[in-house]
Design a protein that fits this description.
It contains 17 helices and 15 strands. By secondary structure, the protein is an alpha/beta fold. A 9-stranded mixed β-sheet has the order 7-8-6-5-4-3-2-1-9, sandwiched between helices. Strand 7 and strand 8 form a beta hairpin.
């Protein structure tokens, strides 16, 4: 159910909800990049002249959010865009703002996304000093031709150096993002990329199949016939090769696209998969405090107009029905290896998941997509491969 924007009404609803529901995860969006990648449809842009103004607005929003919400984060994630493309003095202002307004004694995981080409030893020391304890590096490939095709502005040698510098600065929780299913990519090339990724010896790896989104340069190339749709069977072979090689090196697959060494699963990402409360700050950031979901304003002008008046820049506010919440709880939790906890579902909704979704669960079991234990429902290997088809079974 969409709500009309009435600031008085929304403030009353938010204040009441915030009093009941602590926010245990905070996402902070930095929309700036050195260059927009050819596959990216995220809210990001290369406009360095606006960085300083944006950081000041973001700090104002942090202060306002602190007054409105019960913020007790166990995880903070600064993403983008490319947060580390900020100059050191502006990055420091953001990190100091987080310390002043958002960090509490409950904080366990504090992640900053980084492009390897934007990291310096000084920035790494600064982040470490300000409490950041996890880095997520957008590496994507070890193949220079593929990096150019994707529009990345770093080389794999820079990625290797970034990991070395991060370890030297004391970071012992590092994620590397890599992509498969790239136009023209072979299984042998993907094997080599995986071997190079493993050689970095990071604690976490995220492996995503490229999805060509509307409005991106890659979508235009696809429409013009300059690149072709990737073969589904080859993509599946790449996925299974990833599972095989990473498991052999001691990585646990704990979600469809994510692998970690013991003790290094991403706490912040699990907040999303478990549909727990989170607050998004910054341009276009999404928030979810049950039962409400909203975005921040999507243009810098709209965002600034609200923040300078000490308003929170909320838009597209929606009250999510219990039926919709139950559906999302199921298909998001099924992304994880541990699956959907029967106990969690019952505690959240006062109903048994087996009663609410009896027909869907039976169909998925009969098709071999789902297995049941005493504690949970979990995807089978085939179910993980066909994830979207499984999830659709639970959407009315």
């Amino acid at each position: 159910m969409k709500l009309k924007q009435s600031k008085g009404l929304l403030r009353t609803i938010f204040a009441s909800q915030a009093a009941r529901e602590p926010v245990e995860a905070v996402y902070i969006h930095i929309p700036f990049c050195l260059k927009k990648c050819n596959y990216c449809d995220f809210l990001s842009f290369a406009r360095p002249a606006e960085m300083e103004r944006y950081v000041q607005l973001l700090l104002q929003e942090m202060r306002a959010a602190r007054q409105c919400y019960r913020i007790e984060p166990k995880s903070i994630f600064i993403g983008g865009g490319t947060p580390t493309c900020l100059p050191e003095e502006l990055l420091e202002q953001v990190l100091r703002g987080v310390q002043d307004h958002l960090m509490t004694s409950e904080l366990v995981e504090y992640t900053v996304e980084a492009n390897p080409g934007t990291l310096t030893e000084k920035k790494l020391r600064l982040m470490k000093h300000c409490g950041v304890n996890r880095l997520s590096l957008g590496i994507q490939s070890d193949n220079e031709e593929q990096l150019r095709l994707l529009g990345r502005v770093h080389s794999f040698a820079q990625a290797q150096e970034a990991v070395r510098m991060a370890k030297a600065a004391g970071f012992d929780n590092i994620n590397g993002d890599f992509m498969y299913g790239l136009p023209g990519q072979t299984l042998a090339q993907w094997r080599h990329t995986l071997e190079q990724a493993l050689a970095l010896e990071t604690q976490h790896l995220s492996l995503y199949q490229l999805k060509i989104e509307d409005g991106t340069p890659m979508a235009q190339w696809l429409q013009a016939g300059e690149i072709e749709e990737f073969d589904d069977e080859l993509a599946l072979a790449m996925y299974r090769l990833s599972q095989e090689l990473l498991e052999a090196q001691g990585y646990q697959q704990y979600e469809i696209s994510n692998f970690a060494r013991l003790g290094y699963c991403s706490r912040h990402n699990q907040v999303y998969w478990r549909t727990e409360n989170y607050l998004g700050l910054g341009l276009g950031a999404c928030s979810w405090i049950r039962p409400m979901r909203w975005n921040n304003c999507f243009t810098l002008e709209q965002y600034a107009a609200q923040v300078v008046e000490s308003n929170l820049p909320e838009t597209q506010i929606e009250v999510v029905t219990e039926a919709e919440q139950m559906e999302e709880t199921v298909f998001m939790a099924l992304r994880m290896q541990s699956g959907l906890s029967k106990k969690l579902f019952a505690a959240r909704f006062g109903k048994k998941v087996g009663d609410v979704f009896a027909d869907a669960l039976q169909r998925c079991r009969q098709k071999g997509w789902l297995v049941e234990s005493e504690e949970a429902y979990m995807l089978t290997e085939e179910g993980r491969v066909l994830g979207n088809l499984v999830f659709m079974e639970f959407i009315s």
